[in-house]
Structures are given as structure tokens and as C-alpha cells.
Amino acid sequence: MPDQRTQSPRSAYPYDDAPDTDAAFRRIAALPGGPEKSALRQEVVCAWMPMAVRLARRFRHRGETFEDLKQVAQLGLVKAVARFDPSRGTAFPSFAIPTILGEVKRHFRDELWVVHVPRRVQELRRRVRSADHELCASLGGRIPAAHEIAAHAGLTEAEVRLGQGALESFTARSLDTQPGHSEDSHRLTDTLGGMEPGFDRVVNREALRPLLQALPERERQILYMRFFCEMTQARIGLQLGVSQMHVSRLISRTCARLHDQVMADPRVPRRTA
């Protein structure tokens, strides 16, 4: 039986995109770091590029553009060439293929989720989806229930529901989507609620209440007569024995101070233009 280290990749590898780069890898291993070693690695990467493209093609129907898939696979190839050690006696494809496929799968796992979920939930999603497909085939197309998926996949029903919730997290619908095909259906945008102005009013009132209570008695009395009893400034001045101008200055000064105190409160919502 021929030594694995001397066996030609073309004879051991079933595809026609396997160049003979054994000598190049031995030279790379012997060279010190520098421009010559980098250039030789680049030559090897270019020689094996068709293999990376072929592996990327396996994932072309999973929602990612083929150009992006090729770039990710080529990055995996670069890593494989940089890490490959010919002295271990392993053919380069046996080392490179798992590295490239791992890079592509990592890209799908970490980069393409619209709603990013923990890795454990991603694994639950994969197991739930596989169990669902297998059960659909055995049940004659009937959609399996959560307890049936749980029994088939060795999961709890809570884990199944968690995995099912993640099934729709990989992609997202546009808010302009119109579910259904009836004339009465509406865009998803039309189902969204708006900001309730009453919430801000409640917050502002609660923030203002202790500030009003802390005002001097005279200022609090003037504000009460003006804004709660709706008395004119002239009438307030007559009742307190001061001029209308003095009442106006007191109201303006007190309201400005209250406004500054309320806006300094971090609980109060800020409105942007």
C-alpha cells in the first residue's frame, strides 16, 4: 500500500480540481516567513480555488448570494493553506474541505440571522427542523404536533417550541408585505401601533408633582389660580395685592425653573424634532 505522504492527490481525490501541490507545500514548510513564502502560498491558493468554488456551490440555494459564498469559501481555503502541515501525512483535501465547509457554515450561523439567537437555540432549530421533515414523510404529509417532534428528537416540548420560534428568525419579512390574498388584507405596517401620547403626559405629571409641592407657598398659589382656576393675571394681582406685571414675571420665572428641573430628570421622555 503506498505511503499516504507520497500518494498523489489526483489519484486519491475523486474530483478533477485537485492540483499536485505536494512539492509546493513542502517548500512552504521549509521556508522562513517572508515574501517568498507568502507568494508561494498565494500560488497554492489559486491552484485550489476551483475546489473552494465547488464547495461554495453546495450552499447556493440557502438565501445567500453565490458571490458572497465564494468569498467565504475562499477565505476558508486561505486559512487551510496557511495551517496545513504536510509532515502529518494527510492529503491536503482531507484537511481543507472541513476547514472550508466550516467557514461557510460559520458564516450562515453567525452572520445571516436577521434576529440573532444563541447557539443553543440555533441547534434546537436544526434538530426541530430535521425531526419535522422526517415525521412529515412518515406521517403521510401530516404536520406533526410538538409532543411528537419532542419524542422523535429526544427534546422536551418547551425545547421544541423554542426551536420552532427560531425557525422564522433566519429571514425577515418586509413591513410592506401584505399577508394573504384577500381584498381585506392589510400590509404589516398597518398593524403596528403608534406612540400613545397619554403615556408621556402621565410621566410628565408624575415628574412635576414633587416639584410643585416643593415650591414656596406664594408661587404654588399663583400657579394654582392661573392654571387650575383659570384666573387672569390681573385678577390674581388684585387678590394678592401686587401688579399684573409682577404676577407675569413670577409665573414666567417659576415655569422656567420647573421646566429645567423636569428636563433634568432622566425618567422624562425627550422629544426630538
Quick structural summary:
The chain is mainly α. 62% of the residues lie in helices and 0% in strands. The radius of gyration is 35 Å and the shape is elongated.
Descriptive terms for the model:
mainly alpha; 273 residues
Regarding quaternary structure, what we see is single chain
Counting helices, strands and paired strands, the structural category is mainly alpha
Helix content: 55-70%
Element order: H for helix, E for strand: HHHHHHHHHHHH
Runs in which pLDDT lies below 50 for 5 or more consecutive residues are 1-12
**Any idea what the shape is?**
elongated
The Cα radius of gyration reads: 35 Å
Chain-averaged pLDDT = 81
Intertermini distance: 79 Å
E-strand count: 0
The main pleated sheet reads as:
none
Describe the fold and architecture.
The protein is elongated and about 105 Å long. It has 12 helices and no strands. With 273 residues, the chain is mostly helical. It starts with 8 loop residues before the first helix and ends in a 10-residue tail after the last helix. Helix content is 62%, strand content 0%. The longest helix has 23 residues, at 35-57. Residues 1-12 have low confidence and may be disordered.
